[in-house]
Amino acid sequence: MAPTDTSLLFLLSCFLNPSGSFQVTPVTNYTTAEWNPQPLPVDYLATSYTPSWVPNMKKKLVNYNRNLRPGFGGPPLLVRMSLDVVSIDHISAVDLDFTICILLRQYWKDERLAFTGTNESISLDGRLVEYLWVPDTFFPNSKFSFLHNVTMANRLLRLWPDGSIVYGQRVTVIAECNMDLRKYPLDKQNCSLHLESYGYTTEDMIYKWLKGDESVRGLQNLQVAQFTVKNHQTKEMIATYETGAYPHVAFSFRLTREVAYIFLQMYVPSTLLVMISWVSFWINKDSPPARVSLGITTVLAQTTFVTSARASLPKISYIKAVDVYLLMCFFFVFAALGEYAVVSFESTRRKRKAAKREKEIQNQREREIAQRAAFVDQIFQVHPDGKLPVSVELLARSTWLTKQASAYANQELQMPSPEPERQSWSTKEEGSSSGISEETKARRMAKIREKVARIQRVSLHDIQDVDNIDRYSRLIFPSTFMFCVVLYWTIYLLKM
Predict the structure, then answer these.
(1) CA 77 to CA 204: how far, in whole Å?
(2) Which tens digits make up the pLDDT trace of 418-471?
(3) If exposure means fewest CB atoms within 10 Å of the residue's CB, which of 142, 284, 330, 409 is most exposed?
(4) CA 285/CA 462 separation, integer angstroms
(5) Low-confidence ranges of the chain (pLDDT < 70)
């Protein structure tokens, strides 16, 4: 005897005799046997015990021809439809299809199965369908479908006394859905499920919905990932082929995509990458490794986002809304990298140009120094008759000019103050005696001042202009991007 059996006997004795003494008597010759039910007989339709009002289906099926529709040779048979949507499991924008599980019910009348004795309907075993005529309904827009058969085939068969039959099935269908993805992920899609007779034309059978739009139930309570199921409607049509016109019914429902998932997966990271690319505007232009590495990293990351977005969508010819946004972000990220290229090129070009101007001014200075030296030599030149050609005042002036020439030669040129100029250049006789007019001297000095000031002004101006490119970019890039983002959402939200 197993220990478990002894424990059970002990607990049972305590429950039956809680206060008195007891004695446990082991049970001997205790055996267990597995349940081995006998298989059902072939004629399971007729049992040994059947209420008198229940029709004998075995007798009814003796002369029953399941190959002919009810009312064969007469008016077309009316078959009504209704269904409950159990779930919509997967809506694929890549394959342009959706997976739906439904409880499909078909109603028709087969007078060959009518019975009397009660007004109540009877539920029959689903396996009886193999001996009855049933509509040959199929799903024309189905890619793949199957009937659930766990723990047995999910079928419902109910019969009324007048021969009315309801036949139900649990079916999962992967059906096509022609999606327009131009506004993706701000799109709304209309998907539909079609039912049609495969072999019976409208001369033999007609399909109709049982209660119009109310024939389809369950869509209001569905929880679909990334989508919200909106209103639906039913349709009754006739499908025309080369072999004839066939009864056709369909129901369509509207799907509104939830933007939150796509927004967090694509829009937010792309926007942050654009903002990160603006950091390069605050990095010194003389740090190429920092700015170039930041620009290339953001460009590659944005390229990855564009590639992943296209991989999750079908290869279609038109542009989608998400493509517009990602390409816009890619343009701004690439423009930030290109901005540094412009800054670097412009800085190098202006430095070379400034160096060239500096060299020209240096040559001009050397020429001026040579002219000043010649002028000084002319002043101290002795007249052939042995006399000096200058007066004492001219000698004093020549001393000052010698100092100026020496200073100019050492690149320490000092512009003459108005006071000594008035003292040394006050008379016309002195100017005329030196051989150089007052006007010529003033013109030369003005040219020198202008060239020196131009060198100083151009060098400082060039540096400020290159830095201003970054300063202007700090304002222009964010403001332009914000304007494009507002314009983008305004256009696509108005189109919804």
Answers:
(1) 6
(2) 444 444 444 444 444 445 667 776 777 777 666 656 555 544 344 456 778 888
(3) 284
(4) 14
(5) 1-54, 375-437, 441, 448-465, 496
- Tens of pLDDT, residue by residue over 170-215, are 999 999 998 888 888 888 899 999 999 999 999 999 999 999 899 9
What the block records as the tokens of 171 is 């079916």
3-state DSSP assignment of residue 143: strand
Which domains, from first to last, does the chain contain?
57-257 (2.70.170.10), 263-350 (1.20.58.390)
Query: H or E stretch including 137?
Result: strand 137-138
The tokens for 483 are 């304007």
Element (H, E) at 337: helix 321-379
Task: Determine how β-strand 77-92 pairs with β-strand 216-217.
Answer: parallel
d(CA 112, CA 70): 8
Asked whether the beta carbons of 85 and 252 are under 8 A apart, the reply is no
Looking at the whole model, is its pTM more than 0.70? no
d(CA 337, CA 294): 8
For 29, the token pair is 């010759």
d(CA 299, CA 106): 58
Instruction: Provide the β-strand partners of residue 137.
Output: 197
